[in-house]
Amino acid sequence: MNRYGRPSGWEAPAGPGPRILLLGASGFVGGGLWSHLAPRHAVVGTYATRAAPGLVRLDLRDETRLAALAADGFDLVVHAAGLVPLEAAEADPALARLLNVRPVEVLLDALRGSAAKLVLLSSDNVFDGTRPRYTEADPRSPVNVYGRTKAAAEDLLLAEGGHLVVRLPLVFGRGPWANTFLARLAAPTTPARTDLVCAPVYLPSIGPALARLWHRTGVLHYGGADVVTRFELMSRVQRALDLPTRVVPVRGPQAHAECPRPPRLVLRSTRHRLLGPALDTALAHLTAQGRGPGTS
Questions:
Q1: Which of 50, 149, 167, 210 has its C-alpha lying 20 to 30 A from 272's C-alpha?
Q2: Over the stretch 143-200, which tens digit does the pLDDT of each residue have?
Q3: Which residues does the annotation mark as catalytic?
Q4: pLDDT in tens, 96-144
Q5: Which of 28-37, 48-57, 268-277, 284-293 has the lowest mean pLDDT?
């Protein structure tokens, strides 16, 4: 075994692009990034509890190992790990800060003085959802614990300078290992809110977009082309895949009462023109990938 825990003899593909450390590669968004980046670049990906082929184990709370890995000569460190479920963060703010904020401090300390860039994947939940749309210049005002931890992590990164924050909205699609989005459609009934509006991004589009943007610094938004309610999104995915669930419209306190949610989160950028694919295009691609929740 080599120092990353990979089988001896493993070779990352040698290519013209950067050497990348991808934290959280076994997650839903991280897995989508891994699928795009690993065949094209020299990538070391990590997992915490969900083992996946070719990935190395890393607990974000192991600060010594995290710092050593980050400082091992990478050009880019893409941070897609942490505590993601909003309800889990709301239930345990201390854990949310430990997993979403503290690792950024460790990474910045490890990278200081090197030429490596840290790319932090952040969230539209840093906003309160009271505006029709949000650009990079709009003030943040998170209404839940998850959003506050992401804003705190952003502040650390931006104070350092030379790094990049990429804010993402709700992501939909099928992941290579984790399928947290389609898992929501695995039950006989799927409650979906009619009073939450978003501009969701299709998972396979994030890797190519990130590769076009990672030379930037500061804050960037990457949103989806279509603006829909959660109910409309889930209904259209259900119909496209002909899933055996009934999508049920709900509003307000009926759903997610344990966690405040911004009512309208539409990300747009004034710094680039990239948008995720139209929903019809994405659903056609998703349908071609296969049917079923695939809740691995």
A1: 149
A2: 999 999 999 999 999 999 999 999 999 999 999 998 999 999 999 999 999 999 999 9
A3: 146
A4: 999 999 999 999 999 999 999 999 999 999 999 999 999 999 999 999 9
A5: 284-293
Domain-embedded: residue 296: no
How buried is 242 (Cβ within 10 angstroms: 0-12 exposed, 13-18 middle, 19+ buried)?
A: exposed
CATH of the domain at 238: 3.40.50.720
User: Is 159 inside a domain boundary?
Assistant: yes
Burial readout 90-110 (b: 16 or more C-beta within 10 A, e: otherwise): beeeeebbbbbbbbbebbbeb
Within-domain flag for 50? yes
**Number of structural domains the chain divides into:** 1
A 10 A CB-CB count for 65 gives 16
Instruction: Provide the residue range defining the domain that includes 34.
Output: 19-289
